[in-house]
């Protein structure tokens, strides 16, 4: 993988983390504390552990996929992958804004579901290009599916 490609995917992931993190500050608010949450709500301390791992996986596996496609002369597929990655990262950051800043619980549950589908598609595409080397990205759609279940349950408990 080329360092410039990793710098691009890493920069995009870092921007997503910053934007999402800014929106997530209300997670420590009275509003969030007052929400009814399901028994499977992870402790707050889990999120700053899980997300950096997932973001690193996204950056590395995506850079590897884009470079492999480019080296194979599949430039259109590399461009498509890059566009879908950008869309995925926009969805990723948007969830935090919808949930924490806008307090749109139903909309954020739907957005989490769309993000899970997008993440599964990215993982599928990366695995088609690099096989087992893309396996770490498989954690991302699993976490997003869990986030969808969690978001949906919070929405149902707080209607």
Question: In words, what does this structure look like?
Answer:
It is found in: Membrane. Its main location: membrane. With 159 residues, the protein is mainly alpha-helical. It has one domain (3-17, 47-157). It has six helices and no strands. Helix 1 (3-24) packs antiparallel against helix 3 (47-71), helix 1 (3-24) runs parallel beside helix 4 (75-101) and helix 5 (105-130) packs antiparallel against helix 6 (139-157). The radius of gyration is 16 Å and the shape is elongated. The model has no long low-confidence stretch (mean pLDDT 96).
Brief synopsis:
With 159 residues, the protein is mostly helical. The protein has helices at 3-24, 30-34, 47-71, 75-101, 105-130, 139-157.
Spell out the blueprint of helices and strands.
Layout: H1 3-24, H2 30-34, H3 47-71, H4 75-101, H5 105-130, H6 139-157
Pfam family, one: TspO_MBR
Membrane topology: Multi-pass membrane protein
Transmembrane segments: 78-99, 134-156
């Amino acid at each position: 993988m080329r360092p410039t490609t990793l710098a691009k995917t890493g920069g995009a992931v870092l921007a997503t983390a910053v934007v999402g993190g800014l929106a997530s500050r209300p997670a420590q608010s009275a509003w969030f504390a007052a929400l009814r949450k399901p028994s499977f709500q992870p402790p707050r301390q889990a999120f700053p552990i899980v997300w950096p791992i997932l973001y690193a996986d996204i950056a590395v596996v995506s850079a590897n996929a884009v470079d492999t496609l480019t080296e194979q002369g599949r430039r259109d597929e590399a461009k498509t992958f890059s566009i879908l990655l950008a869309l995925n990262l926009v969805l990723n950051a948007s969830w935090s804004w919808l949930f924490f800043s806008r307090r749109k619980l139903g909309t954020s549950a739907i957005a989490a579901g769309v993000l899970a589908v997008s993440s599964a598609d990215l993982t599928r595409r990366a695995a088609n290009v690099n096989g087992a080397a893309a396996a770490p990205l498989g954690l991302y759609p699993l976490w997003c599916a869990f986030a969808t279940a969690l978001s949906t349950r919070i929405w149902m408990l707080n209607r």
